[in-house]
């Protein structure tokens, strides 16, 4: 997957918008960040729950890894774009989006 693929899949989710956070593109639903993109590093970050993170890291450790430190302990998860496939990336973006979207957006 590429940076453009990540962006396309994130923006395909309902009400998703692109903004910037700490000089990196981010993706939001109703102004809540559900993913960020680190283009120079070829990685994305998705905001999962710790339980979701454990599952995806166990299933695909070459693709997913906890972000170091406290953010990672709370579920922030690195995505290696080079190692990711479209189905896995779509799945984690949707999980992250659902974690942040208000109930009215999920209908």
Protein model, in words:
- With 107 residues, the chain is α+β, with helices and mostly antiparallel strands.
- It has helices spanning 3-11, 50-59, 70-73, 86-100; strands spanning 16-21, 24-29, 32-38, 43-47, 64-66, 76-80.
- The chain has a single domain, classed as Aspartate Aminotransferase, domain 1 (Alpha-Beta Complex).
- Helices cover 36% and strands 30% of the residues.
- It has a six-stranded antiparallel beta sheet.
- A hairpin with a 2-residue loop joins strand 2 and strand 3 (32-38).
- Helix 1 (3-11) crosses helix 4.
- The mean pLDDT is 95.
Task: Give a quick rundown of the structure.
The protein is an alpha+beta fold and about 110 residues long. It has helices spanning about 5-10, 50-60, 70-75, 85-100; strands spanning about 15-20, 25-30, 30-40, 45, 65, 75-80. The protein is built from four helices and six strands.
SSE diagram, text form:
Layout: H1 3-11, E1 16-21, E2 24-29, E3 32-38, E4 43-47, H2 50-59, E5 64-66, H3 70-73, E6 76-80, H4 86-100
Antiparallel strand pairs: 1-2, 2-3, 3-4, 4-6, 5-6
Helix pairs in contact: 1-4
